[in-house]
Amino acid sequence: MSLKIRQCMLPCATALVLVAGFGMAQAGKDGERSVAARLAGFQEVPVVSTTGKGEFKGKINTQTGEISYEFSYADLQSEVRQAHIHLGQRSVNGGIMVWLCQSAANPAPVAVTATTPLCTSPGGTFSGTITAASVVGPGAAQQLGAGEFDELVAALRAGVAYVNVHTVTSPGGEIRGQVDSGHH
Q: Which end of the chain is more exposed for a tag (fewer CB within 10 A), N or C?
């Protein structure tokens, strides 16, 4: 064995252990990742001029199959009818994956009605846990079916999900925010 190879054996082995340990630590962190969105009218499609604003923060835990979240909105122009997490890239509308709040005028699907809180107006704050049972679709052309938690997580991590709040004045959505995981 050459002198250079022998000299590197201990430091190189140590470096390899450190790199492997770092990789395993990153994989462990992958089990839990934060996502967030800031909601505004200018992010809606089409754009809405509003004083409304909102925020969504979630912590994905793939080990437990849950997303714990906090969601709030304020200063909306009219009665809030519903809020969701949708499947769709920036500037494109997509189908509903998860209901965040509902109203008597726009109730959530039967499968999630009991676990979906009532929207409040002109603002509200909600927190909870999203599980596979919370995922309603959107199915059809977007091919993400009810209960597909891993697909929801993949969409959130890829930045192809958004949160929006629908009101009487803006039934298509008054405020919207693209979910960002910081790791696209």
A: N
* pTM (global) more than 0.70: yes
Is 34 a residue whose pLDDT tops 50?
yes
Going from the C-alpha of 97 to that of each of 25, 132, 147, the distances in angstroms are 31, 11, 9
Closest CA to 172 of 111, 55, 88, 57: 88
Residue given tokens 């009487």 in the structure block: 168
Q: Nearest-5° angle of CA 49, CA 54, CA 55?
A: 145
pLDDT per residue as tens digits for the range 60-81: 999 999 999 999 999 999 999 9
Secondary structure of residue 80 in the 3-state scheme: strand
For 117, phi then psi, to 5°, come to -70, 165
CA-based nearest residue to 69, from 99, 102, 108: 99
Q: Is residue 52 helix, strand or coil?
A: coil
